[in-house]
Automatic annotation (TrEMBL):
The lineage of its organism: Bacteria, Pseudomonadati, Pseudomonadota, Gammaproteobacteria, Enterobacterales. This is ROK-family transcriptional regulator. It holds the Pfam family ROK. Belongs to the ROK (NagC/XylR) family. It comes from Yersinia kristensenii.
Length: 338
């Protein structure tokens, strides 16, 4: 038990050193020790191991002020690549979008393919083409518009994927680490990482696509809120939703999208009390969001109204969420399983 505990502690220290080095960009052993609280000896041992494996690169020595000059280190961004992929649309037409990022999370290149009749073979061929161009890809993150549990697609806007254990299938096909998730969870996570990284209060992200029902991703204390059966965020199942789709608007001058948005946010505020809600989608604009705040003030005290952020497109947030989440998961996997 003691050996196992010691080993686990060492792995955690490796993760701490690498994440600190990425944040500092370039650092000495002393810099990393000061940031992490680890001893100089521990930092030195870990850095030596990482340099031997090629994950960290030793730069030129710092100028000496008397005594031995300090070695300076940088993280090797080319150590591996992450591939993030998502598919959006219907069975018949849509887009497969891919983004390749470096080991330190920097975007390298993006590919977009318009498809007709999306099947699992179409997706596999797309991934294979990108992988052939970037043989250093070691991990794949896939986002889909549906409910996924333990790597299996339960429901999906692209019905050809329903019933597939897509994580197992892709892992077998490409022999790399595979992480699969819901589109809105990834999008909310990407927005959080770029805009609210140090905030522990709830963050929500609402997307209202033109052809499908609204969706919502939620991040609390830096963690995706998936729910007990991965059903959290399925706001189109709120009891008012179908009535708003088929019935008359409460306010004739409000669009159906606005009415849905008003009811969804009115539900989120008393349930999770979000500090920020990002909103994107069909017929949604900054003007619409400004009007939303005015309407919500008729229902809630101003202190409960979240900060609203308009997003004209979810693409950047979506890709960022897939790549960041997959990078975290892959780093954890490769460190604790090597």
């Amino acid at each position: 038990m003691l050996i196992n505990t010691t080993r686990q502690m060492k792995k955690k220290n490796i993760m701490l050193v690498t994440s600190t080095l990425k944040s500092l960009v370039s650092a000495t052993k002393g810099d990393i020790s000061a940031q992490t609280g680890l001893s100089l000896a521990t930092c030195g041992t870990i850095l030596n191991e990482l340099c031997a494996e090629g994950e960290v690169i030793e730069e030129s020595l710092d100028e000496s002020r008397g005594g031995r000059p300090a070695k300076r280190y940088i993280y090797n961004s080319n150590y591996f690549n992450i591939l993030s992929v998502y598919a959006e649309g219907t069975d018949d037409v849509g887009v497969i979008s891919s983004s390749v990022t470096s080991a330190d999370g920097k975007n390298i290149v993006e590919y977009n393919e318009i498809y007709n009749n999306l099947t699992i073979e179409t997706l596999i061929n797309h991934i294979q083409e990108v992988k052939d161009r970037h043989p250093n890809i070691k991990a794949l993150g896939l986002g889909l518009p549906g409910i996924l549990v333990d790597g299996k697609v339960l429901t999906c806007d692209i019905t050809h994927f329903e019933g597939l254990n897509i994580t197992e299938l892709l892992n077998s096909q490409f022999s790399i680490f595979v992480q699969v998730g819901n589109d809105m969870n990834y999008t909310a996570f990407g927005f959080y990482r770029n805009n609210c990284r140090d905030i522990n209060d709830p963050i929500a992200y609402i997307f209202m696509p033109p052809r499908h029902c609204a969706g919502c991703g939620i991040v609390i204390s830096g963690k995706m809120l998936r729910g007990a059966s991965q059903f959290a965020g399925e706001v189109s199942k709120l009891p008012f939703y179908d009535n708003l789709t088929t019935g008359k608007n409460t306010h004739p001058h409000h669009t159906p999208e606005f009415e849905k948005l008003l009811h969804i946010t009115s539900s989120l505020i008393p349930i999770i009390n979000p500090v920020t809600i990002a909103i994107s989608g069909h017929n949604i604009s900054q003007t619409c969001i400004d009007e939303l705040s005015i309407e919500l003030l008729k229902r809630f005290d101003s202190k409960h109204i979240p900060h609203f952020v308009y997003r004209d497109c979810i693409k950047a947030d979506y890709h960022n969420g897939i790549s960041e989440y997959t990078l975290d998961a892959y780093n954890n996997f490769r460190v604790f399983n090597r």
